[in-house]
Amino acid sequence: MAVIAISRQVAALGDEIATAVAKKMNYSFIGRQAIERKIVELGFPADKLKKYDERKPGFFASLAKDRDEYLDYLQTAVLEAASEGDCVLIGRGSFIILEDLPNLVSVRFVAKDPIRKMRLMNEFSWDEKKAQQRITESDTNRLGFHKSFFNLDHEDPEHFHMVMNTGLLDVDAAAQIIVELCSHVISEEKEIAGKKKIDELLKAQHLVNALIFEHKLNISFLKAVIVENRVVLQGVADSSALAEKAVSISKTIMPNFIIESAISVVQDFKAYP
């Protein structure tokens, strides 16, 4: 049960290679439409997706409550897809959402701007100026998306097992390299550990979702971390009573775990509505 997470620049053949890898390994391909469909099924308004999906949120969007809600739904969608195992996920921060999985293989695809421009010009019959505008827009949005939601630089190679220049490789060759990479880095022990970890991550995310969406607790940046039989709640609340309520509810939801609070209490803290 390996999980492959793909990050890519626009026109770096990411979707094409991910699809080829899934076919070679008989894995499920989890693309944009599948993730968006799941996010909407979970409860996020479809008309708000375009504000956040691999985009740099505007100033007010970055402060809005639905920004946090989008992230919770996105993480749930990615985790549930990964829990099925044997899958290839592309984009949407999947490489960072799943970074703690022992059975994760994360790969990023890049190419030089002249090559990316030529690919866009050939595919869409664009002129060079329009192709460059698309590249600049996409690069800016994806940088802002990862910075806003995950506070990281997605171009940093330290996040990946491999960064591949697709200007030097065709789709089939790149896909075969990933197949070989998986065979070398994913062991049976890692698969077993990965299944256990994804179960923990899903339990933690479902707890967060219950506190926010079912019990309507207004705790910003809420996160739950499971360590063996303990659950630690993190986030920012405007009162200690709210943090205590989160702990109390969590105990009823997960009675077999010790619930602890690391929620920061900031008086008069209010998220933008």
The CATH architecture term of the largest domain is 3-Layer(aba) Sandwich
Strand percentage: 15-25%
Percentage of residues in helical conformation: 40-55%
| Count of domain modules | 2
Stretches where pLDDT is under 50 for at least 5 consecutive residues are 59-63
| CATH-assigned homologous superfamily of the largest domain | P-loop containing nucleotide triphosphate hydrolases
What overall geometry do the principal axes of the alpha carbons give?
Answer: globular
Question: How do the SSEs run, as a string of H and E?
Answer: EHEHHHEHEHHEHHEEHE
End-to-end separation in angstroms reads 41 Å
Structural class call reads: alpha/beta
Rounded mean pLDDT score: 92
Outline of this structure?
The protein has 273 residues and is an alpha/beta fold.
List keywords for this structure.
3-stranded mixed beta sheet; 2 domains; alpha/beta; 10 helices; globular; 5-stranded parallel beta sheet
Write the layout of secondary structure elements.
Layout (H helix, E strand, L loop, with lengths): L2 E6 L5 H12 L2 E3 L1 H11 L16 H5 L1 H19 L3 E4 L3 H4 L6 E7 L2 H12 L3 H23 L11 E4 L5 H15 L2 H27 L5 E8 L2 E8 L2 H14 L4 E8 L8
Parallel strand pairs: 1-3, 1-4, 2-3, 4-5, 7-8
Antiparallel strand pairs: 6-7
Helix pairs in contact: 1-8, 2-4, 4-9, 6-7
